Amino acid sequence: MSALDESDLVNELNAKIKEILNDDILNDVPTFSTLEELDALIAVEKGQAYRVTIERPPLQSFEIIVKQSSTVRDIKRLIKLQVERMEKDEQKGRRRKISWRYIWHAYGLVFENVRLLDDDAVVSQLGIKQNSVLRFTRRDHEKGHHRKARRH
Known about the structure:
Elements: H1 3-21, H2 35-46, E1 49-55, E2 62-67, H3 72-91, H4 100-106, E3 107-111, E4 114-115, H5 123-126, E5 133-138
Parallel strand pairs: 1-5
Antiparallel strand pairs: 1-2, 3-4, 3-5
């Protein structure tokens, strides 16, 4: 098989995938989905996962799919993947470096006015369900209990 034939096959396959994804039933499937994302979409249809909205004022909100057995740590990982994908789409290939260590040190997730501080807490035990909203908020420091600056 020559390189030209292979290139034509790839282009034809991509065109067919786009045509399939334009179907009304599959309109929520991202064009370049990972296997994990496809599994999550199937889990939503089976009732084994939830669509959760992440609000992060003043930036735009977005949705992630969270399995019932996921932990807060998994949610943070999904947020990281989604934000990086959105940054890549906005920047057209040019990427900013985001320090996730700083982000999770300075910000946290809140669900129904309760801070999600335990990374090992399971989603289903927190009361998170279909169409729940998690807010991305700055962490407050108790008066007189500021953390000391870290030295690298």
